Amino acid sequence: MRKLIDLHMHSTVSDGTYTPSELVRHAKEKGLSAIALTDHDTAGGVKEFLEEGEKQGIETIAGIEISSLFEGYPEIHVLGYFIDPENKDVMEKLNFLQDARKVRNIKLIARLKELGFEVTWEELEKEANGQLIGRPHFAALMVKKGFVKDTNEAFSKYIGNDGLAFVPKEKLTTPEAVSFLFENGIVPVLAHPILIGMNTDDLIDFIILLKKSGLQGIEVIHSEIPEKESRKYLELAYRFNLVPTGGSDFHGENKPYVKMGVPEVPYDFFLKLKERKRDMFSIMETRKL
Ligand code: AMP
Ligand code: FE
Ligand code: FE
Ligand code: ZN
User: Fold this and answer.
1) Over the range 203-234, which residues count as b (16 or more CB within 10 Å of their CB) and which as e?
2) Which helix H or strand E contains 61, and what residues bound it?
3) Is the pLDDT of residue 96 over 90?
4) In whole angstroms, what is the distance from residue 53 CA to residue 85 CA?
5) How much is the pLDDT for 223?
6) Helices 46-56 and 20-29, axial angle in degrees (round to 10)
7) In what helix (H) or strand (E) does residue 210 lie, and over which residues does it extend?
């Protein structure tokens, strides 16, 4: 049987509905050979994920997906692979990504109050029930408190990117996100390039720019990349000596149309990624010369 993998999935620690252990068990049932956890801006679930991987006898990678900004493009996501949860220094450095969220949430509470909608930190914590507090929790509360009729109205009128109460979250630029990962020994990979909406020439320039910051890979298979496009990204990977990666971007019931392990990703990508992690130290040393 062909060995298959899934290197992109979210747990309850960010915006998925499966806990890290549940993800591992689900992958095991699906017969996947290797998986990676890539929660948004947090590595809070990776320890549990790796431990369950040991137990279930399935190969696991601790990862993250960092949201970044570049020029006028929509949020650009950078995947980072091989975070060591025992490395307190690195784990602490990753916390700054969540601090930006906290600051944004506090500002959003204040802004909503100005508009006459009282939402408290305690209520949000209760709503989030252990998850990182995000706009979906604000929306749910606004519905519960009768401020809006549904979450759609909450986003379109108030907390969505064009809403009256919108407060942007402080973010790294994409080159900053890439070099942050690289310098901490975490393999940086450009996530779902199709969602950036760049034409191929601009994407090539972008890749060249990001390689200067330490980019090591590009996600070529993803639930939102049509098969025909995957071939194009794979060619770019070879051309720029980037490791090709792939995954579903599974979010559980939060994105019910995305299934773990779909589309299929070959095991070979996992081997290449591991190899690149091994080479990272010498790549870093060479760059310092
Ligand atoms: P946050 O990370 O707190 O800024 O929240 C982002 C999340 O809000 C996204 O992952 C979506 O799940 C959700 N979201 C953003 N825009 C909308 C929208 N217009 N309608 C519904 N959900 C949205
Ligand atoms: Fe998500
Ligand atoms: Fe993403
Ligand atoms: Zn994702």
Assistant:
1) beebbeebeebbbbbbbbbbbebeeeebebbb
2) strand 59-69
3) no
4) 14
5) 98
6) 30
7) helix 200-213
Q: Alpha-carbon distance 23 to 25, whole Å?
A: 6
φ, ψ of residue 64 in degrees (nearest 5): -155, 160
How many CA atoms lie within 13 Å of 197's alpha carbon, on the beta-carbon side? 7
- Averaged pLDDT score across all residues of the chain: 96
Distance separating alpha carbons of residues 202 and 198, to the nearest angstrom: 6
Binding site membership of 206 for ligand 1 (Cβ less than 6 Å) = no
CA of 136 to the centre of ligand 1 (A): 6
Strands 187-190 and 217-222, how do they pair?
A: parallel
d(CA 87, CA 119): 37
Mean pLDDT across 52-79:
96
| β-bridge pairing 172-173 and 76-81 | unpaired
DSSP state of 154: I
Is the pLDDT score of 235 beyond 80?
Answer: yes
Residue ID of nearest Cα to ligand 1 atom 16: 160
Hey, which residues does 172 pair with through a beta bridge?
Answer: 68
Pocket test for ligand 1, best of 14, 131, 135 (most atoms within 8 A of CB): 135
